[in-house]
């Protein structure tokens, strides 16, 4: 599953990264062990695009971006059989990456139900969602040091994204869109005003206004 990375998404991710860096988080020990200058930007691009994908497929979701510089539980919530489930999207900035990585310290500190492997596409103009795994499965993955000790697993051996989408509860307000999702994907059609542009509000919550999501 691959979506074009929108200009509006890039701008929002950059704004949120600037906001979180202004908290002085760079002076605090980073429990992930990662310190690339764009790591927040990369993560926000993955989360925002995944959120748009959930909306495209007519799934029930909740998303809150935490911008206070502190570590939090997963920002994305979905529902399975009316039970809430947390999703952690792990996005790599490297288009050539072959393995999904989950920092051991982060994995031990925060619990999510599902972990989605994603990476920037060629030229950083799209986000590819390559598969997913459960927390119990990741706990059994081998570990090695990738800048920090991490669980790792080949993207090619993750569960298919279609399997995850099939599990998720629908959003009744999005059912007309969901019913046409497959045809829209086949036709490569850009969706119009059914999408929303995130607007940052106090506390990182989002209000919605129309935008466009393009399929890659």
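^ structure tokens above, recovered residues below v
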């Amino acid at each position: 599953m691959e979506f074009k990375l929108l200009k509006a998404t890039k701008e929002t991710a950059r704004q949120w990264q600037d906001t979180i860096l202004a908290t002085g988080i760079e002076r605090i020990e980073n429990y992930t062990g990662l310190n690339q200058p764009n790591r927040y930007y990369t993560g926000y691009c993955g989360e925002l695009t995944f959120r748009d994908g959930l909306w495209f497929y007519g799934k029930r979701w909740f998303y809150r971006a935490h911008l206070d510089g502190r570590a939090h539980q997963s920002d994305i919530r979905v529902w399975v059989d009316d039970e809430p489930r947390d999703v952690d999207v792990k996005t790599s900035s490297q288009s050539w990456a072959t393995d999904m990585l989950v920092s051991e310290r982060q994995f031990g500190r925060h619990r999510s139900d599902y972990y989605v492997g994603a990476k920037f596409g060629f030229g950083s103009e799209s986000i590819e969602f390559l598969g997913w795994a459960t927390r119990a499965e990741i706990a059994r993955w081998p570990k090695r040091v990738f800048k920090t000790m991490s669980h790792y697993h080949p993207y090619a051996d993750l569960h298919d994204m279609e399997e995850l989408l099939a599990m998720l509860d629908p959003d009744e307000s999005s059912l007309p869109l969901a019913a046409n999702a497959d045809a829209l994907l086949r036709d490569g059609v850009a969706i119009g005003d059914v999408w929303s542009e995130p607007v940052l509000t106090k506390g990182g919550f989002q209000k919605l206004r129309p935008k466009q999501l393009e399929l890659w």
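Residues 2-213 form one domain.
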